[in-house]
Amino acid sequence: MKPLGAIKSAKLIPYTTYTRLEFDVEDINAFLERENEVVFYHKISKKVNLIVIDPGHGGIDPGAVGKKGLYEKDANLVIAKYLDRLIKDSLGIKIIMTREKDIYLSLKARTSIANSNSANLFVSIHCNASAKSSKMKGFETYFLSEARTTEARAVAMRENASLKFDGIEPTDVVSDILIDLAQTAHLEESNRFAEFIQDNAKRQLPISSRGVKQAGFYVLRGAFMPSILIECAFVSNLEEEKLLKQKSFRKKLAYCIFCGISFADFIAPSGFNLSFFLYLPSISTTTLLDYLYHHKSDHRRDNYIHDCQTR
């Protein structure tokens, strides 16, 4: 098979029940799989050296509390720790956790940690809740911008309610947050970052995808880097509260976020080898991602298998 463009080499590897098509890519590229089409494109070369992971709430601030007793703050911390380990082990990127135990940290202090350490990405991990309906469910990703829906505003108000522990009324800061929007240069990147996370959630998780949304989250204001807030599932939904208590589901959530970070087009590892399955006979409808190898320096090369597959 003759390679074209950015592809250095390509080969077909036949197996008993399927055929694997493997590419070696000349430069940093990525792909999107949309319906039956796989699109390769060039990645923006922007080195990511440090990511700040922020497990929401903590200490005196429990976050949402489920009917069966699950505290959001606890689920957030466990998911964040799994994500921390995945990124360190496979991408070799430095991680700073805003908290590593059950302590209270102000919303302002969280992004201050990211800014003072010149982080390249800020990821705030949360679980959702609804006071109106226990039937609401799913995974959604937010970036900082003016809320477009009443529901998005309600989510932001709930998360901003943590300000009361600092003696600040959440309603007093909305205008300040919107003023900050005019000063940030990372809205587009944050939006794109959120889309990669949400795309992987839609592919991998056994819960519904609620899409990418925007709202005025205080914890994201003033972040001098692409930043997102993830609402993993609904603590207020009995079915999802049960899932959130499960170790396997927490790991799935962390892995989904990890894959989104790995694929984000502003993250540029030194190079990667990409291969995906073509299952026969229906090749056109079952193109799958098989492995993504992140090649590091010669003295340390980890071949971490990303099992980001659409079944």
Automatic annotation (TrEMBL):
Task: Output the InterPro entries linked to this UniProt entry.
Answer: MurNAc-LAA_cat, N-acetylmuramoyl_amidase_3
Q: Which GO terms describe its cellular component?
A: outer membrane-bounded periplasmic space
Q: Name one GO molecular function term.
A: N-acetylmuramoyl-L-alanine amidase activity
The question of whether Hydrolase is a record keyword is answered with yes
- Matching SMART domains, A to Z? Ami_3
Q: Where is the MurNAc-LAA domain?
A: 111-262
Q: Which UniProt keywords apply?
A: Hydrolase
The protein's name is MurNAc-LAA domain-containing protein
- GO terms under biological process: peptidoglycan catabolic process
Any Pfam family the entry gives: Amidase_3
